[in-house]
Known about the structure:
By secondary structure, this protein is α/β, with parallel strands linked by helices. Helices cover 47% and strands 13% of the residues. Helix 5 (127-135) links the parallel strand 4 and strand 5.
Amino acid sequence: xxxxxxxxxxxxxxxxxxxxxxxxxxxxxxxxxxxxxxxxxxxxxxxxxxxxxxxxxxxxxxxxxxxxxxxxxxxxxxxxxxxxxxxxxxxxxxxxxxxxxxxxxxxxxxxxxxxxxxxxxxxxxxxxxxxxxxxxxxxxxxxxxxxxxxxxxxxxxxxxxxxxxxxxxxxxxxxxxxxxxxxxxxxx
Length: 188
């Protein structure tokens, strides 16, 4: 795999910024879901994250979010990439505004979700990482490690992730560069 030169990246970034200036949606922001886009969350877990997913589902619905439950629905062993993919696809397709995926450590699901074009998944383990993921990186999928954090902290991280707006400004330029790399690699 060839890494683009700085000059090639500059051309890609200029194209993305030009589309944004014309009012075209950024490639990182697919069409919005039919429901209130700020109230639909895709939620998934593997067997290790199932109890935490259920707790988060109850919390989210209690706060007025619509939840697309991507499974799993038991503690029977399953493969986390399948569920991370399901959550990521809901977000990338615009059927969900944000996604949350829970596995044992949160790392593998983050890797899997980030393979879906338009998804910027972040594995967060405290309030500060959730805030930074949203404010600086415009992350749209949160991954959590059920074996690393407790239920109360998972809820706090999720609340922070969903409540924090993207900061824009200098951060938008950087996110556009991330998406330009994705687009360039997808074109190969």
